[in-house]
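The following block was generated as part of the benchmark described in Methods. Ligand: uridine-5'-diphosphate.
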Amino acid sequence: MFVKCRRHRVLIHKILLFMVTVIVLMFLIRELPEREITSSKQIQNNIIDENDENDEYEIKLRTYESKIIPNLGHNGKEATLKDPEDNELGEKALKSVAMNYVLSDRIPLNRSVGDRRNEGCKKFYYNPTLTASVVIIFYNEILSAILRTIWSVTLQTPEHLLHEIVLVDDASTAEELKGFLQYYIDTRLSGHRIKLHHLNERVGLIKARLEGAKLATGDVLIFLDAHCEATIGWIEPLLARIEESRSTVLTPLIDVISASNFAYLSDADYTGFQVGGFSWPGHFTWINVQNENDRGKLTPIKSPTMAGGLFAIERKYFWEIGSYDDKMEGWGGENLEISFRIWQCGGRLETVPCSRVGHIFRDFHPYSIPGKKDTHGINTARLAHVWMDDYKRLFFMYRPKLEYSPLIGDITSRLELRKRLKCKSFKWYLDNVFPEKFIPDENVLGYGQVRNNLNMCLDDLSLHEGTTGPLGLYPCHAFSATTQYFSMTYKGKLRSENFCAEISNTLEVQLTRCLKDELKQSWIFFKNGTIYNSLFAKCLSSEGVEVPKAVRIDNCKDSDHQKWKFTYINSTVIT
Ligand code: UDP
Ligand code: MN
């Protein structure tokens, strides 16, 4: 009896154990659904120990992966979510970090954005032998955006060309960018030679890129922002061109990925792409390809500057040419510095239209830069002192307080570098690389603010480059406002850095693209302050103009509305 009973108990025990195991397994299968994305290494065993850090990551990761919606945003199409609550959260995300991460988290990390190349590009055959180290730096970026950047690089780069991916975490505070990201790399991207390096202290994007470059060992450095997507065929033309000319630094065509719906916006036929320029207040600008014969070409095209986030440079050349100015902090200015330096010191900058990489352009920076304010201005002041010779006056005209600011720091080592590399002058750069660049105080009768006798000023009303809008009237600013700088050129143009004043059919004056020999853009400036157009035989006038509307032309008369004074006058040449 006793024996039978014991046997019974053992049997019941076994049955119970079996049932518990079945229930636990069923629970696990339900809770941990199949992953949506392909992983390079399957997790070996499915038994999760909640106390183990890695297993905690695994649970978190599978939950995350289970929310990914297959084919959402496939081929770079606009992505949308059905749940209005998600959309509301997405809107909030856009306002707080300038990127809809609610949506980003649901789009497959390994989505393809399709072949974005112009048809003509597919005829080119490249066979580079150089290898690339792709360097991606980040500070508190959205994890799914970082991972999509990495996936796009691993998937779109032939294995033999990708030496490694170097990730530099600029001391992010977001927890998931530490152990969890490393765990993701170890389990989902193992075998792809990805180095993740965490900096102990936030150093800003310039020094973070320098750290990445130090860690890299491939032939060519390719820097990408942490919210990019590389497309088919992106790397071959970059490496091939560098193989041909090691002192040529390249940018891909940077396409727009929407920060709100992740649509890859640029179409493949897009040949009207732009290259890099700059403005005298020290900003990067997009400009049309200057030489008309070059427009529509698919071979690499000269670019006076680069945007800065995405570029390829031979690794040893990067160090030879002076890498970055390591005393630049935070964000900004480094792209114009490296651009001027490359050109002035014997290199070249080109845009490669057959290499297409998407970038999420955010409406604002979702981060602040601790300590220093206006690092862009301070960094630009450094580069102006080092590279722009006399032309730095034009930057400091807009930023007078920066010229002798102690915040600029010591520039000796950069001046030495310039000497050691025997670099050419900024005038050489303007004459040879960017002859189209308008110089506001050369060959002009007057420049600066243009004030009438009633103390009102001409103002471009922050007109967006490449568009047309009113030449407005506005109270004169006491500071050097970029919107109120105009020049009266020898050739009779009344113009700002990017626009010329033109008379419209309604006799209002507009700012638009400068055209040669256009009588509606021709003005004569007289000593008495009159600005006259001979086609209409009328004078520039502010009479009856409601601020901030456009000034007009009117019958010439002796009126305070028709007397204009420039801040600086070249009195020797005015009639
Ligand atoms: N970044 C960084 N440290 C900083 C600021 C920015 O590592 O202090 C990274 C950022 O995460 C991004 C890259 O630098 O990957 C370029 O910054 P961002 O995209 O904000 O510049 P933008 O594209 O607006 O020029
Ligand atoms: Mn960016």
